[in-house]
User: What shape does this take?
Amino acid sequence: MVADSASPETCRPRTPTTTEGAAARAAALADVALADVALADVALADVVVLSPPGLAALANALIGDGYRLVGPTVRSEAVVLEELESADELPWGWDVDADAGRYRLRRRADRAVFAHAVGPQPWKRFLLPPASLLWRARRGESGFSVDPPEDPLPRYALFGVRSCDLAAIAVQDRVLATSAHPDSGYRGRRARSFVVAADCATPAGTCFCSSLGCGPAAAGGYDVALTEVVTGEEHLFLARAGSAAGDAVLPRLPSRPATPHDLDAARAVVGEAAQRMGRRLDPDGLPELLAAHREDPHWNEVAQRCLSCGNCTLVCPTCFCTTVVDATDVTGTVAERRRHWDSCFDLDFSYLHAGSVRASTSARYRHWISHKLGTWPEQFGTAGCVGCGRCITWCPVGIDITAEIAALRGGVPEGGGL
Amino acid sequence: MTAVTESAAADLVGSADSGTDPMVPHRYRVVRRRLETRDTVTQLLEPLDEPIPAFAPGQFAMLYAFGVGEVPISMSGDPSRVELLQHTLRNVGAVTGALCAARPGAVIGVRGPFGTSWDLNSAYGHDLVFIAGGIGLAPLRSALLQALSQRERYRRLVLLLGVRNPDELMFRKDLRSWKGLFDVDVEITVDRGAPGWRGQVGVVTTLLPQAPFDPDNAVAFVCGPEVMLRFTALGLSQRGVPAQRIRLSTERNMKCGVGLCGHCQLGPVLVCRDGPVFSYDRLAPLLHVREL
Ligand SMILES: Cc1cc2nc3c(=O)[nH]c(=O)nc-3n(C[C@H](O)[C@H](O)[C@H](O)COP(=O)(O)OP(=O)(O)OC[C@H]3O[C@@H](n4cnc5c(N)ncnc54)[C@H](O)[C@@H]3O)c2cc1C
Ligand code: SF4
Ligand code: SF4
Ligand code: FES
Assistant: This one.
């Protein structure tokens, strides 16, 4: 590996603190404040200013470099992530009205392109595809032979990644790419990827990244980060590089140097965004809280509402669970192993010969929320939730992870220490 | 295309394509197959490709039947025999059925070895108590063979085995030979007796109160269905064996075996990575929670 100027720091979601009390809460708040002013570290000389055509030039440069450009675009009344041919397809002039179980696109008065928070799809769609071929085996002389997939792994440029999603990618890196047995498909796609981050200016009603120290400004793990500033007739993007690859691409774009006024405007954008989060989640002591409530009757109450549909796991950018399916062709000579996303809400997920371990919806919801907020740190050394709010927005019955935690906290007897 | 310039991602996860793919099986040929019971077979395997690394008793492998699927199965052989792998499996469904049917000459896939071991070395100088329910004897056989090959390291060796009925006794030849050893105690019980059965009748925990070991100086190794684990751990605790010296091998659905698929979670642990063998002090708060 070549040593270079790329920052190895990523906006890793802060592991929920396991210490109790006021000191921990104060530390948590201090961290939030740090994330809010992430742009405070940015020096004027490291920033260039792009106009909307400059942004289009960035997209074209990446396509020209052989990347498949993927980014947000409007389709069937939502902002989805798709392969794009140019920056024209980005959601210029849209934002969203999101709440528990609700998502509506809204036309804006301006042409802001990154004002839509996050849509239903997480970027894992590209790095850990919903379905992929792991290998193919062929019957032959010595039983069978196994061949890896022939298709070369794609090189994606992820365009417009929010800080919550950057943090989520860092979580999946930890689980899938830097573990003892890294997943070769994920690691290959990820290592080839180029990341254009976009600081968040307009959080949605279901966002709570700043509670978890995951936003709204991108703090690392990107090649290029953009802060969009739209004021009156001004529409510009402050661009900063986060790696050697980012450093190499910025000078190829039409740009002008940043002024102190530009930088102040960008800082104001992320600073205000941090104040406008639609929701909050107190991360203090979550592993202990959830472990102490394994037998709580609250789970039965949630199960009255939860449909066990698994939407929350599909839209979650950190959920990584997969299953494999083995099959043969009609002649029985070629066998394949395919992998696809799985959900812990699926009854078969925990199947053992005697039946499913988590047969009830209450056990499945408890498992899901406990994994996100309780057991993930112990399993992987990071938090499992980055506060993107997708599970709240896309739950058909509006179950809200922040509200369920608040309900559990409310149920703790006085002096419980949680 | 521009020159290769280090991206943020490559810096974070390393450059692409290094290392082996943990999901690709190694091919092994079945060289021997022995019917243990009506539905259980032991198979010996020799490698066709690069062999998998040496295993420690208690670890498992993912075994693949061509086109049918892959399941976790414990190693049941002698860990010092590196050239041949051995496992014992019961036909309970599609994959185990296809694997059981593999006769000498057939080729199956093997990934592993994965997970934690019984860690016999840390039990040096203790009584070793092996407690098995049914097919749970398979991974314990491997540990018992290792203990017997280093007999002087341990004090008493005790095997307590429970099976549903006398027809389900497996490893009969081993059991006979272990029973013949003056320094090994073997106790067998069946849930339901049968004509001709003159041994004990009752679940395996009924053997615990009388079993010849010193609770202050024993390490217990337990493998069987989850209810059996619960009751056996309680029984051992009642005899005074401390939780840190009770080791239990747990089961969960497994799709990858290497910490990537999320299926094997038991609360905060991944059974494939942090287990399957855990000490009871780690497991107690989890094992007694319903549907965890
Ligand atoms: C660590 C470990 C070691 C094991 N060692 C042995 C052994 O030495 N010998 C032996 O006979 N069995 C062993 N088992 C159990 C064995 O894996 C199951 O019997 C087998 O998975 C059943 O698969 P099937 O397709 O034949 O059955 P089905 O009932 O058709 O199962 C369908 C699928 O569910 C999953 N599944 C079902 N039961 C289990 C189970 N008990 N554990 C994990 N996944 C399951 C599998 O993915 C399986 O393919 C072990 C299990 C674990 C977790
Ligand atoms: S649990 Fe919900 S809020 Fe947290 S990362 Fe997943 S989808 Fe986003
Ligand atoms: S919490 Fe909501 S989205 Fe998740 S499974 Fe239940 S009903 Fe579906
Ligand atoms: S079996 Fe896949 S994570 Fe354990």
